[in-house]
Amino acid sequence: MNGQNREDIKIGAEVDIVLKKDQPTGKLTRGHVKRILTNSKFHPHGIKVMLAEQEMVGRVQYIID
What we know:
Blueprint: E1 14-19, E2 28-36, E3 48-51, E4 57-63
Antiparallel strand pairs: 1-2, 1-4, 2-3, 3-4
């Protein structure tokens, strides 16, 4: 599942995000959602979240089941 819809992302969910510094390469970082930072219901590049691990911030590319 992609991370463009805010309603699909829950606190504690395991996700793959792309960090700002990794946007050119598309390298993904996996972690658990600590906070949802995007207020809008939809974002074409992915909802911005903070991960619990090291409080990294990035846009959700995939939600892991």
